[in-house]
Amino acid sequence: MLKSSKSQAKIDPAAWFNSPELFGTEYNKLLLEQYKLYVETSNKVSDRRGTAHTLLLTVNTSLVTVYGLVIGKDTTLTSARGPWMWLVPLAGLLVTITWFMLIRAYRALNSGKFKVVHELESRLPGRLFDLEWEFLERGEGWRYTPLSHMEQYIPVVFGVFYLGLLAVAMRLL
Prior knowledge:
Elements: H1 6-9, H2 27-72, H3 81-121, H4 128-135, H5 147-151, H6 153-172
């Protein structure tokens, strides 16, 4: 089962569902439609997450490329070598910190969304997302490591790289 915080432990999911008597025979149909819409919002969050990763990977790759071009070539930009040596890694470090924080925010958002999906499924004939999560040992076994756990290593690697570049730049100043 997904880990819950103290504030989530106070939430009674049943209190968030209206009584079937309020909707009569349409209740199950409406519940299914609401479930479909909610699952779609979860998919959209995943799409936005992928777009953000692509953007931040592109920004980091561009920063590394700019740094290599400026530092590695003997051009008129060499006169700006001093500031470039620490400004680019500092900018990269700020981008990677933001990236890491976004990953954590998307993880929390998706965790909340899937708790709601599981709660909705408890009122439907099949609990397919919950069954899938069970087969995946709820992300705690060797079969499946949640993507949000693995993807956080990418900005960490960039961050370590930028820290190394900053250390070298400080030695050369």
